[in-house]
Amino acid sequence: MHLKPDEGTLTIDKAEGPAGAEASAGVKITPGTGFHMSTDYPIKLTLEAPAGVKLAKAEYNSGKGEKGDADTFGEKGLGFVVKATPQKAGEYTINGVFKFGVCDDQSCHPKRQPIAITVNAK
Prior knowledge:
Strand content: over 45%
Shape: elongated
C-alpha cells in the first residue's frame, strides 16, 4: 500500500529553527504522469512526536471533497504543513502515517505511506 515510483513523488521538508520556536515542514505528494490525487478519498496524516517536541496538531485531515487541513489540495497535488516546537537544541524525528488515494484512468489505489520528518533545532 506504499506509493510506487510511477504513481507519484512524496516530498518531506526538514523543519529547522531555534529551540523553543515553532518550525514548519511541508509534506507533499505530486502524482506521476497518468495519475492524479483522489480528492474524494479520506485523507489523513497522523503524527507521533518524540520526547521534547510539541506538535501544533497530531492529526491532519482532508478529502471527501473538502480541503480541510490541507495546504495544497487538488488532483495535481496534495500537501500539509506540519508545525512543531522543539524544546531544546538537537535533531528530532517525527514519525507518522500518510493515508491518501492516487488514481489512474481505470481505478484508484488507497495508500498508507510511513513518513519521517526531521526537526533540527539550534
